[in-house]
Amino acid sequence: SAVISQKPSRDICQRGTSLTIQCQVDSQVTMMFWYRQQPGQSLTLIATANQGSEATYESGFVIDKFPISRPNLTFSTLTVSNMSPEDSSIYLCSARHIGEQFFGPGTRLTVL
Amino acid sequence: AQTVTQSQPEMSVQEAETVTLSCTYDTSESDYYLFWYKQPPSRQMILVIRQEAYKQQNATENRFSVNFQKAAKSFSLKISDSQLGDAAMYFCAYGEIGGGSNYKLTFGKGTLLTVNP
User: How many folded domains does chain A comprise?
Assistant: First the structure.
């Protein structure tokens, strides 16, 4: 299995600011994913982040709003830029490891 | 695009009883994975069980088993001898087989399971 940690676990931010969420995996993984889970809703994929290439964004998500870095095989960051209250969600990092997909504990973001 | 439908927003079960959560999906692919994930209040997504579409045998993991009906595109989860710790949101998910972003998962809206003592 793979253990995934995220920082911060939660944050309260002012609108117009940006927050960078860090994701650390205890194993080397090729594929990492960032999901958003709005209150009481299901998970929606934001982007796929492969090491050594640009992130691939899903429909409705753009790089300017959600820039992603993937500097090595165990780490990724997601930045939520120019935040608005509509960005209040849980953001989950996920990684594919030996055929399974594991999830971090999530970052609960509240934008005031 | 693939879709996953969970038609039961909430379910409840008595402790020690059996409950079945429903899931249907839509895809044009012949090979894929199906998953059930559990998300307790801690928010940690936990893989409960996985089924490969090319396998006819239904997957089982201890008290958890699935009824996979490929032709009907149905993938239900049965929890036997329910325990208080089973209370959580359960998500059904579809995953493609392939490289690149095809490994992404498509999730249903979830079923909130309550276990009554």
Answer: 1
Nearest CA in chain A to B94: A101
Using a CB–CB cutoff of 8 Å, tell me whether B91 touches chain A: yes
**Contact between A56 and B101 using a beta-carbon 8 Å cutoff:** yes
Residue B108 contacts residue B19 (beta carbons within 8 Å):
no
Which of B43, B100, B110 is facing A42, going by the closest CB pair?
B110
A108 pLDDT exceeds 80?
Answer: yes
B110 close contact with A: CB closer than 8 A: yes
**Cβ-contact A77, A105 below 8 angstroms:** no
Does pLDDT of B102 surpass 70? no
Range of the domain at A69: 4-111
Structure tokens, A57:
């964004």
Amino acid at B77: L
Work out the minimum CA distance from A48 to partner chain B, whole angstroms.
6
> Architecture of B3-116 per CATH?
Sandwich (2.60)
Domain of residue A75, CATH code: 2.60.40.10
